[in-house]
Amino acid sequence: MTRALTAALIADDEPKLAQHLAELLQRLWPELRIVQTCRNGVEAAAAIDALRPELAFLDIQMPGLTGLEVAQGIEGPTRVVFVTAFDAYAVQAFDAEALDYVLKPVTAERLQRTVERVRRALDSEPLEGPALAGALRRLLGARAGTQPRLKYIRASAGELTHQVDVDDVVCFQADEKYTCVHTIGAEHLIRTPIQELAQQLDPETFWQVHRSTLINLRFLAGTRRDDASRLWLRMKGHASELPVSRAYVHLFKAM
After folding, report:
1. What is the mean pLDDT of the segment spanning 124-137?
2. Span 6-139: which CATH code?
């Protein structure tokens, strides 16, 4: 049975390419409803959180947040199709992990195959767990083991520079411009992006649980699921709970 009025979002910083994709989708999938077109990753992430569309067509290289980073933060049921100009290796990685992609420039023939695949996928369980997390981690270019592990964080505040032992960090949380380093009783702002920190920290101790959050497992106090089945973390020495996005929920199933 064909689904009716499936909601979708398109995110691409090239308006003409976004319009071309929307027109092709309208022709190939008349029941698809484009609820919003976004021009950057930050706007796309906010729209997905607010609108919770069934589908998101995400360009990989966008300002603010990449399409991969947006996908990392999805907490609801939204399924992702990447629109990419990546090379053949990246395309193979998407395909092997059952994450669909459309290679630029988008053609009607290739998009037709995507539409057929996605329609079938909408009737199955959302991709999550090791498959999604593994694909995103590889495509984000994680380089574990290729550089020394980070031991200290240097954070400046006016004329003062604080040297923070990473073992004392409860969690890292990012916003648009800064990353906040939370320790028990103190907060420091640095400009190092979350993705760069994730590559430098010990993955056995620091887990990424959201596109904007890294936690120190030594400070994990417990977990909670809300009425919408979203997973939240309680951290020692941190007042507010931290959300876990769908790509990382599997990390806590054995706890």
Report:
1. 58
2. 3.40.50.2300
